[in-house]
Amino acid sequence: MRNLLSSSLLLQNLKIKIYRTVILPIGLHGCENWLLTLREESRPRVFENRVLRIIFGHKTDEVRGEWRKLHNEEIKGLYSSPNIIRVIRSRRMRWAGHGEYTAERRGVYRLLVGKPKGKSPLGRPRHRLEYNIKMDLQEVECGGRYWIELAQDRDW
Fold it and tell me: Where are the domains of the chain?
């Protein structure tokens, strides 16, 4: 795909459509269950910036007249879609709302709200999916209500 995205024969709009329809779904497969810490959030961002740098190519520096790579802020200005972390969070919240409607014995529900039995290992507790969903809701400023109540407020 690198040769296709870096080709000068294709328009940038077509390259962005290829990125959105082919590359992004493959890169985000199963992202609804990812437990992203701050360190792990950088990996999808690096992936997205790398692909967008290939699509938009290099830029000529006005002062020196030399080719240089695009900075992250310049890439954000050229690419109008939401960043990859926001897409992951929205998919995770949508999946959590869907999982709330499943029966309690199913695996989706147990993954969302279930607590493992037995002794927990020493050290800091690991992140749970429920914690990540609560953090996502706080960023969207819906943190005052419990996320299960938000999922049940749907109009069908």
Answer: 2-81, 87-114+126-152
